[in-house]
Amino acid sequence: MAEETAKPEVTEEKAKTPKPAEPKAAAAGAASFDAGATRKIRKPGVPPRRGKKLRNLVKNQASKINKDEMVPLKKAIATLKSMKRAKFDETVEIHMKLGIDTTQAEQSVRGSVPLPHGIGKAVRIVVFCQGDDVAKAKEAGADFAGSNDIVDKIQKENWLDFDVALATQGLMGQVSRLGKVLGPRGLMPTPKAGTVIPANGDIAAAIKEFKAGKVEYRADKGGCVHAGVGKMSFDEEKLVDNIHAFVEQVRAAKPSNVKGNYIESVTVSATMSPGIRITF
Questions:
Q1: Is the pLDDT of residue 111 over 70?
Q2: Do residues 176 and 206 lie in contact, with contact meaning Cβ atoms separated by under 8 Å?
Q3: CATH value of 122-211 in 3.50.50.60, 3.30.110.30, 3.40.50.790, 3.40.50.300
């Protein structure tokens, strides 16, 4: 009978020898993989869950506003001020729904209105003019003034560091080349908005009006007009005066062929607050 093969004896020291540990990097990678596998992927377009503090704030604001109820203007302004929560000076906005057919060119509503107390914001103005008008424009407070040099700068450098663009009637031929750039941004000078200065017009007066708070408005495709009419830091009376001036100007711009209810609704809001429907 053949002798059995002797098996090596396992010593006590070998039995107690621990297994080599896995590298830390590998362990960390495995942990991150597991965490990534269990993490929920947020669907695009779905905002993150609101915190408890914000939920309570929105609930309190909603309790102050009845969307189906229209309130007087002064009460609406007081409600807006009571809901202020932002640290910055919010802009007070007005939104008007007009009963117009925007597919008809003769029912377009566009213009400008000088607000009695301004908008509480520094307005940067560029004036397209030439000759002696350049010096007049800068003396009246224009931030930029010129002709071909400014046109080329806008075309080549896409320079748009201004809020309002004015142009003399004689330079509209050159300014018209900027229609594709200025038009979509609402900066293209046009006679309807009062941003084209006639041949015998007063450049200084036009600049001072916009510097003081002249606001442009234009109905969008839905027949709505939007504009800023002041800041939350304004007194209630100043905001009321500005809103009254704006609404009356839009009312006066009613196209002659519009029938039925022209101003369907008026809503005031602030940058970080819900809208409040008002009645006059």
A1: yes
A2: no
A3: 3.40.50.790
- Distance, in Å, from the CA atom of 79 to the CA atom of 271, rounded to the nearest integer, reads 14
Contact criterion met (CB below 8 Å) for 266 and 94: yes
In DSSP terms, 217 is beta-bridged to 111
pLDDT for residue 51: 78
Q: What mean pLDDT, rounded, does the chain reach?
A: 83
* pLDDT exceeds cutoff 90 at 192: no
- Look at residue 2 and tell me whether its pLDDT is greater than 50: no
- Which superfamily, per CATH, for 66-120+213-280? Ribosomal protein L1/L10, rRNA-binding domain (3.30.190.20)
**Residue written as tokens 């969008």?**
220
Question: Which of the two residues, 62 and 110, has the higher pLDDT score?
Answer: 110
CA distance linking residue 109 with residue 195, whole number of Å? 15
